[in-house]
Amino acid sequence: MHGHSYKLFVTVKGTPINDINNVKNGMVVDFGDIKKIVKEEIVEVWDHAVLLNALTPHKELGEDLANKGHKVIECNYQPTCENMLYEIAEKIKNKLPSHVQLAYLKLHETENSYGEWFAEENS
C-alpha cells in the first residue's frame, strides 16, 4: 500500500454571465462554487481514505483496516490516477450549473506524475 497527496486541476467552459445586476456578472462560474463542489464531492469523501478495488484478492486487508478505524472505500475499478479521473469527472459534471461544462481535469499524484481527462475524448 502507498498513498499520495493529490493535486487536482479543474477547467470548465461556458459563456460569462452578462447581467449587470448579477453579483457574478462576467463570470462563467464563481471559483468558490467549483471549490465547494470539489471539496464536498471529492476531498471530503476521499481525504485520508484507502481506496481499494472491490474485486481485490486482498479484501481482508481493507476489512481489517476498516475494523481498526481507517476510512476504506471500495471502488468498482482499480484506483489508479487515470481511473479516478473518470469518477471525479462524473462527480463534478453532476454538480455544475446547466450553463457550465466540464472541459478538462488534471490529477497529479506526484509533482511529475499525473493523469489528464479531456471532455472531447469522453463525450
From TrEMBL:
Lineage, opening ranks: Bacteria, Pseudomonadati, Bacteroidota, Flavobacteriia, Flavobacteriales
Entry superkingdom: Bacteria
Organism: Cloacibacterium normanense
Family label: Belongs to the PTPS family. QueD subfamily.
Reaction catalyzed: 7,8-dihydroneopterin 3'-triphosphate + H2O = 6-carboxy-5,6,7,8-tetrahydropterin + triphosphate + acetaldehyde + 2 H(+)
Broadest EC class assigned to this enzyme: lyase
Reported cofactor(s): Zn(2+)
Pathway the protein takes part in: Purine metabolism; 7-cyano-7-deazaguanine biosynthesis
Protein name: 6-carboxy-5,6,7,8-tetrahydropterin synthase
InterPro entries: 6-PTP_synth/QueD, 6-PTP_synth/QueD_sf
This protein's record includes keyword Lyase: yes
GO MF term list: 6-carboxytetrahydropterin synthase activity; metal ion binding
